[in-house]
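Record type: ASSEMBLY
Status: queued
Input:
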Amino acid sequence: MPNRIMAHMVAFYPDRESSIKIAGALIDGGCSYLEIQFPFSDPTADGTYIQKACSRALQEGFKVNPGFRLISKIRKLTDIPIFIMGYANTVCFHGVKKFLDECVCSGAQGIIIPDLPFDYDEGIFSMGEKAGLNVIHVIAPSIHDERLRMILSRGPEYVYAVLRKGITGSYTTIGDENIRFLKKVGAYRVKILSGFGISTKKQVNVLSAYVHASVVGTAFIKEIMQNRGKSPYKIIIKKMHALL
Amino acid sequence: MQRLYNDFFGSFGGRYVAEILRPPLDELERVWLEAMKSDDFQKELDTQLTEFAGRPTPLMFAENATKALKGAKIYIKLEGLANTGAHKINNVLGQALLAKRMGKQRIIAETGAGQHGFATAAVCAKLGFECKVYMGEIDMKRQRPNVFWMELFGAEVEPVKGGSSTLKDAVNEALRDWASSFETTHYLLGSALGPSPYPDMAREFQSVVGREVESEINRRNLDVETLIACVGGGSNAIGFFYPFLDETTPRLIGVEAGGTGNSPGEHASRMSGSGKPGIVHGYKSLFLLDDDGQVGSTHSISAGLDYPGIGPQLAYLGQTKRIEFTKISDREALDALQFFAKNEGIIFALESAHAGAEAIKLAKSLSPEKSIIVNMSGRGDKDLFILAGNLDKDKWHSFLEKEVKENAK
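Status: finished
Output:
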């Protein structure tokens, strides 16, 4: 299997213009999917780096409508699928249907909202289907078999498989436990996007046998934070090359 | 007939969490519902509530306050006399015994005013759990005595620096901890909020407050016009109001933090028109949000009311108008605290003083045959530094300076 990367970034981090350059670098660097996070004040699934990036992005003036305009702009740079990631409150506050319609208008192919699971979804899955948008379920290794079956027997194109317990950021060892989980998910015909704690080529190489694409997020933000003052484009291109 | 497990209250409530947190919440729901039917569990809880928490707490007739205000009779439920100084212990004991049933070894909690953390740390010391309490950095500073007590009990108090460094951020951090530790750890959430089953569970464990009040009302044959409680997340209010929720009387008033003004960031009043529907911390309710759906900043002199959301059942009961909501400013709460101290010899926690202030306002407008009952959900020992700094600044500062000098020797 080829090494595919779904690159995660935070809209408006470290500022609007730089986030467009970062998207460009991820695309030019060869990512297969872009996951663009709409920052929320209280990102409970995220570790320190993404939390910091979100607060910075909010200080830089991120709002939902300018966020969609950013997506449209990035859409023009590439043909690869763009997924918008965010939290339930952002979607519900703006109105689920309106939010989904705007996702489609902006050129996004899908949406990932971890705190809207299928049985507390505010209608996002059915409305997403009507709008022609991929609403991507997020699953974790601890998921009960019955819930997994309920999700995957609906035949979604993609599923986002979190590799371990906890939050984004800290390093994940790919071992028997998460491989067993990925094999279980892989028994269904679904494209697995898998991440949480992926920052090295070694991890991506191992994962590529089991997943459609590896998700890398915090690793990019870390690079940007540790190389302040340098061109984000160059930093990100370099990291992408190191991963693929 | 009220149901034990509701999940939703009208459109509010729910279990809006990432899949990662589903197994521990599903387990908690199952074990809690089993325990509620278990005589052994109830017996053990009752014993702990009596022997350790010091229940029942008194219902005191505030005779001097009543005379001074020349209105309705004021009664005060002295919930702050419970061990660890607030109603929080009721919910903590219930959940800690559930943690034991689930075989967990570690308990984590969030805390604002520190009363929930204090109760959690004490119960963990007693029942033998490892304990970690998340507390906003700002709250650690303003409720320093409680930090000391928690550490004395052997708990680790983790300062939370992100966001506004208050209660909401402590909840975020506890949820993050739990996402990686749930196999060995119970998240002992302190209020009637969060993903289900927490709102239902906290209400049930706090309902002991209301049941004791109800039996005293009957025993003394009181004509109760109104019950008043402060509302942060709302666990003392929902427990205190519990026996009366399905009735049409008495009036139930929830008092929110009016802070220093009506602008965003100056108060924590969600039910007076400022709260908007949202999904935060795993539940749907009314929250203080900005115009783009980000969680807004809040202010209250009392750390325990300084939170942008309200428990889902309270939000629903506000919509159905069973509970009326009002707000009290920082200043009015401080004045009420002094009024009850001077007239009754009791010190309200700053949170509960908001309810006391509303009682002062209301009593004056009612006839002397009527009674109102205020829940003093906590006592004010923890607020020593805030109170002394506000009410007796010069003497307090020179005392602190002297202490520092003498201890430095």
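Annotation: The CA atoms of residues 75 and 107 of chain A lie 6 Å apart.
Annotation: Chain A touches chain B through 38 residues (CB under 8 Å).
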